[in-house]
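Recall the central idea of this unit: under ordinary conditions, the amino acid sequence of a chain determines the structure it adopts. In this exercise we apply that idea directly, starting from the sequence alone.
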Amino acid sequence: MDITEIVIEGDTAGIAWRLPILRFAGKKADAPKIYIQAALHAGELPGTALVHFLCERLRQAEAESAILSDIIVVPHANPIGAAQSHFGEMQGRFDLGSRTNFNRDFPLISLRDRDLLIENLERYPAVDRLKRQLIHMALGADLVIDLHCDDESLQYAYIDEAFWPEASDLAAALKMDAVLLSDGESSAFEEAVSFAWKYEVPGEKKARLPGKLSVTVELRGTRDVYPEMAKQDAEGLWRFLAVRGGVRDDGVHLAAFAGPAVPLDNVEMIRAPQAGTVLFHRNIGERVVEGERLATIITAPGMPDGTIEVRAPQDGLIVTRVSDRLVRRRGDLMKIGSDKPSSVVRKPGTLEN
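Accordingly, the structure predicted from this sequence is:
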């Protein structure tokens, strides 16, 4: 394992961040190149725990000459966000300087312009330099895995329809509960990577990308950071690498993915109609039917008409739930994966900021 660092100089004097990069050299020239990163949202740590144990397995494989692909691992992709605290709480989702989501505003370029990403880096603010160097590394790979987590959540992934159903092997390897099929219409990291592949020839869009994969994996919830869980997830990602020819392991055999694969248009974003204290009646992983009570919101405590109910707009599987119990008006409560499109028209791109 080769260890290097990218040093990101701050935008004020005396500040710098270090980004460790772990590299494993493959034995097979035509094996797919692999890029794995975790904690782009700095407080989302299940992926960091996963890659810790995955790297143990990769070092063992390295000693046995069983690594076939060149593999890059970035265990914590956002040292800038990790250093941001406000009143004792890490603020790792949005850059406090620009107020931009760390997983948005990645450059949308053609693959042939990849090296332009790191030309004259000193012209850009620190956050943009971080983003440009991350995506530059990723665009040197064939399989790109961005490890995130949700709030309270099942294990699921956002997978561009251009990679489906080929990418069902990843869902099977990690034993995901669901897949949300995205449209690739945002500037999030994994969609910026797929954009570069789709528009390798500027102006000519590829609808399918065989042999490629760029994906956001949501490793359950933010508090799901446990040793056995991380080891199981690392084993799942190892199985995927073996199936795709990145490592040699003849003992890996995958069953077919049996979970739902739901287009984003079929995801019901359940939001609070008013502010208040939320009392959930249903949990993640449960199937609900249209009209079923999902939550009660106490809007005026102690008053005779001080509650309102939130009900399911259609049948579906509860994929995520918010952990906060004090909610704002229009704040997210749940995501429900459904069989039919939602009656709420979705803008192209991601479901959340």
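The radius of gyration is 21 Å.
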